[in-house]
Amino acid sequence: MELPLRTADELIDAHTETRRAARRSGSWAWMLRDLWRLSLEREGPIPVDEVHRLLPGRTREAVAEALDALDADDLIVVRDGQLTAAYPFSGEATAFAVILPDGRQRYACCAIDALGIAPMLGQPIEVDSPCHHCGEPLAFAVDVGGPAAGAAGIMVWVSQWDGAGGRRATSL
Question: Which domain CATH number covers 123?
Answer without folding.
Answer: 3.15.10.60
